[in-house]
Give the backbone structure.
Amino acid sequence: MRKILPILLALMFAAPAWGQKTFKFATRDTLDLYLDVYAPAEGSQTTFEGHPKPTVLFVFGGGFISGTRDGKFQVEWFKRLNEAGYGVVAIDYRLGMKGYKVGKGLSGANKASGQFLLSQEMGVEDVCSAVNFLAENEVGVDVNNLVLAGSSAGAIISLATEYHIVNGDAPELPEGFNFKGVMSFAGAVISVTGTPKFKAQPCPIVFFHGTEDKAVAYDFYGLFGRGIWGSSYFDRQFDRKGYHHLIYRYEGRTHDVAAYMNLLWDEEMNFLEQDVILGKERTVDALVVDQTLPSWGNVSMDSIYRNKQ
């Protein structure tokens, strides 16, 4: 009994307090990729006005060099979503910038643009692999009712995935597949061939971004057609094309917004209920001035890639 008790205690504390299940969904470059499925909490309301609530497929952040699918802060958000009746799937993806040396400033980023693009595209492939796994396996997730959400690098991957789906060049997916929505927390799209253009109306997208973000461009950062196009740029592009979307601009905020998932609950629920579940075709452009939102310092590309490699 003395030997068994520590093992039982370890299992109790290691296991989540609610219904998480883990599956291997792919092997890429000799790396096994896993996803965690978190079911809606027992007794939670899993419909809204008679329609089933979607599952949120989450892609973590970390500059393509770090991060995990089960970070404490994001798992708190998953639990909150579960208690509100939403399922969650959190996935691994390959970290394409890990160990890669990036030079200082704009010239360094420009020279590394090919590796940044590769990192984004590997993430897109891994998201699509996760979707295919969910489509082909009974794990309690309706693959036809998925919202893609990401933070920082994960938001870049999320927006790029929808970009490729809309433009018809995404990695293989179930026929006719698209997400029901995308939530981008400080996201953008990387390109080395000029401005990325959505050729058709994407699924409902909500952009959350700080106006002073120096890590993931709020608007545009780059040279000679190589760079990263952010939320404010796509807002203008979508306005020109008449694509409905939502953007929340956090005045004076930096890359902190990438970690605001637990702080923007009302905006998130409004998007999920009105735009995703009810399918209202809205365009919202909000400048948010809120000094109560926390700040964790002014993260920049140099601070990410020169201090953490």
